[in-house]
Specification:
This protein is an alpha/beta fold. It folds into 2 domains: 176 residues, Alkaline Phosphatase, subunit A; 160 residues, Alpha-Beta Plaits (2-Layer Sandwich), CATH 3.30.70. The chain has 14 helices and 13 strands. The strands form 3 sheets. It has a 7-stranded mixed sheet with strand order 2-13-12-1-11-9-10, covered by helices on one side. Strands 6-7-3-8 form a 4-stranded antiparallel sheet, with helices on both faces. A hairpin with a 4-residue loop joins strand 12 and strand 13. The radius of gyration is 21 Å and the shape is globular. The two termini are 33 Å apart.
Length: 350
């Protein structure tokens, strides 16, 4: 393997918590990789960006950056449709995901989609209930899986949308779709909410003490004939469905199961996405965030450090992000020979 990039969303602690969080971490391999690497600050987002830094970084690597600025969220729906092995009729498609919106003091907040835990049979029942509303207005739905549906809406190509993770935990008004067709979407969304309000699936969920599925989130709009950039990676290792769709742009794709498997695959240039820090970071569950980083140390950082030291990986680049910032840390075998540079996590301090 020549080069491996590892994208680590939310491995960079928020600036206001960084000193305390770093004191709670014992990550010698990670610290060695960071301390002996070349640091490069990447473009930052503001707190109202419609996509998170790691999402923007991914699309910059796999698609035309101009579309991201125009559409807000990465235009990934058409590729995700193909990745799900569904027929992608020519046109403009969006990702459509069932969600739970909870009521704050005076606004609605999007809950983390990972916590919805929607069974396949329940998702099918909810899908079948609302599909006629979309068909009636010429916006056909396609079912991917319990958590991911698709809608073709050729006349909505101008909508600016936001990713679920960028929106999670916030007042949804700021991140709702914007554009000339936004009112059409809101009308459909309201019809969905009314249809699901007393749905048997939600009645059973509430009886079991679980949050109802009470809305849909629209994002990722993309045309089936959208031009794509030349792929920068020949192999992608990832476990998240929508990120796996980037492999449709010219990379092979495999699971992010183990460091040994990734190293053994030996692509000339590979990208590994480790994204299980997103959920605790969005929830502010920093104890769980710390625990997961310690598991990364054991399962990923130690073997990757060994692979760089042995020359199996010629160059390892870690891309770390939080909600607004991103930095890359690139290290080589030669760089690790700087014995006078002590392992430290201090480069993650603001």
């Amino acid at each position: 393997m020549s080069q491996l990039d590892i994208l680590l969303p939310f491995a960079m602690p928020p600036p206001e918590l960084a000193p305390d969080l770093l004191r709670a971490l014992t990550l010698p391999a990670f610290a060695a990789l960071l301390a002996q690497s070349k640091l490069r600050a990447l473009p930052t987002n503001d707190e109202f960006s419609r996509s998170l830094p790691h999402e923007a970084w991914l699309y910059e690597k796999f698609g035309p950056q101009s579309s991201l600025h125009t559409l807000g969220s990465p235009p990934i729906a058409a590729a995700a449709l193909k990745s799900a092995q569904l027929e992608a009729q020519a046109g403009f498609w969006f990702m459509l995901q069932p969600v739970h919106l909870h009521v704050a003091r005076d606004h609605l907040v999007l809950s983390d989609l990972r916590q919805l835990d929607l069974a396949e049979s329940d998702a099918r029942a909810l899908f079948d209930t609302v599909a006629p509303y979309f068909e009636e207005v010429g916006k056909p739905l396609s079912y991917g899986d319990a958590g991911t549906w698709f809608v073709r809406a050729d006349d909505w190509a101008g909508l600016q949308t936001s990713t679920p993770d960028a929106t999670c935990g916030h007042n949804i008004d700021i991140w709702m779709p914007q554009g000339a067709e936004a009112l059409q979407w809101r009308k459909l969304q309201n019809e969905v909410q009314m249809a699901w309000h007393s749905h048997p699936v939600n009645a059973a969920r509430e009886e079991a003490g679980r949050n109802p599925v009470n809305s849909l989130w629209l994002w990722g709009g993309a045309s089936t004939d959208m031009p794509v950039a030349t792929p920068q990676y020949d192999a992608l290792f990832v476990n998240t469905d929508w990120i796996r769709a980037f492999a449709q742009f010219g990379s092979t794709c495999g699971p992010a199961d183990s460091a040994a498997a990734v190293i053994a695959a030996a692509p000339a240039r590979g990208l590994l996405v480790l994204d299980t820090l997103i959920e605790p970071a969005l929830a502010g569950d920093w104890a769980e965030w710390i625990d997961r980083l310690h598991r990364y140390e054991r399962d990923w950082f130690v073997p990757m450090l060994d692979a760089v030291r042995s020359g199996t990986i010629e160059r390892l680049t870690l891309i770390l992000t939080n909600s607004t910032q991103a930095s890359s840390f690139s290290v080589t075998r030669q760089g690790l020979r700087k014995f006078w540079v002590k392992p430290t996590l201090s480069r993650l301090l603001p």
